[in-house]
Amino acid sequence: MPELPEVETIARNLRPSLVGRRVLSVGLFWARTLAKPAIGEFHQRMNGQCIEAVTRRAKYLHLVLSDGHLLIHLRMSGDLLLRPSPCAPEPHDRLHLALDSGQTLVFNDTRKFGRVWLVDDAQDVLGNLGPEPFADDFNPEIFYNRLQARHRQLKPLLLDQSFLAGLGNIYSDEALHLAGLHPLRQSDTITSEEARKLFETIRSVLQTGIENNGASIDWVYRDGNFQNHFRVYGRVGQPCPVCADLIERIIVGQRSTHFCPQCQGNE
Q1: What is the C-alpha to C-alpha distance for residues 112 and 93, in angstroms, rounded to an integer?
Q2: 4-126: in CATH 3.60.140.10
Q3: 0.85 cut: is pTM over it?
């Protein structure tokens, strides 16, 4: 599943081609891709819409329209790309938006888990998300207090989008290793200094991910380079870059979790 850096990369790449463009026609090829509204209303409302901004919130792409908001969650295998218009749907295309630029915005999703919402208020979809890691009003003290208010293992908590928005499996493993914290450590045992360090490492790995256009670890995200900078993720049995102990893998909350038993201490 794409995480914050991958979604941010897609938003940045699409922004110059989409902002100011008008939707001429809509093609929906998998009805369940559309979470809201009904199909007829979606077609009626999207035709003629002007795309005023392309942003990101957590793992959602957010297209600000002249009348409403189009939100897209790529889930496991979704991708957004531009093709010359007119274009026939290719295998796994779920949604086409033909634009007045002579291009078509294509939502391609092999596994069909991705979803699209057209809403009047973006908070209807985004309202329960936690703070953005790079938000100006989010700081180590707030992060520490949020950790202390919960009694949960660190790894599942970091993956909880209502706790912190945008972090997923890859970047949580990388951040916890940089911070020297075990993924099963209870959040309310974290000291203020440990919280500060984890806050900084979360921002650091996300920023490095963005600078490298995210990670390309499957067939969807082709241009990322962050996989060449992994410290622990996907490196089971390989030496830790800090201490040379072997990286281990455990299952936490049904998710693969990679860590160094030497550098990341005890639970």
Answers
A1: 9
A2: no
A3: yes
